[in-house]
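Appendix B. Chain record.
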Amino acid sequence: MNLLDLLNNLFYKLENQYLISTTIVSSLIIFTLRKQIQNKFKKFTFREDTKQITKISALIDHDIFRTFSRVVKEVSNMKFYTNNKYDSTKSRMCLDFAKQKSISCQFLMREILLTKDISSMSTDTLKKLILEKQSQMHINYVREIKSLWLSKGISPKNVDHVIRLFEGFRFDVVQSFEHRISAIFGSSFHPNNFERVLAVFDMWAMGIDLLPKDMNTTFEKLNGKFKDIKYN
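Structure tokens predicted for this chain:
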């Protein structure tokens, strides 16, 4: 049965002339625009399917990992002075700090991306995982840099002093991380776990960009107490 036969049948079966007119006009519009409607529907369906098949593990190529490499390179070019003389110990301490922080953070970030069933876990579970890993990053790099500096002959008191100084400059950044994570997981603008993890990684990358500035400020504040240490 073609469209005209269908319309004729409706005409004879319906007594309400207004309803007949509306039905005819609507049918004609749908028939005329059927291809455009089909294309719109396919485009919408494809977009939704694309969102669903995106895997969080794909973020292994996120710019954050290149940012770490660039930041460590920037720190390696920093030179610190004591009494207007180049202080090689302080300069190398700063670079080792940046390297260790980079290694510890990248390791746990990759762990997040490879977590089993991360795409389907509940919002609260994912938020807890992110916060736990962020806290563990701090614990790990502090532990490793302490061990390295102590092995170089730096006293425990001075090691703790440098770390406290650095953490003081980074306090605002870390606090902002926690605020932004709460906002990301409480927002309807991040409808799935891929979007949430992507937003967190974008946020972390911005914080990492600030690392050279905070490292420079920290080690510029140190006096020459490390200058005579043979830091090999």
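Further analysis of this model is presented in Appendix C.
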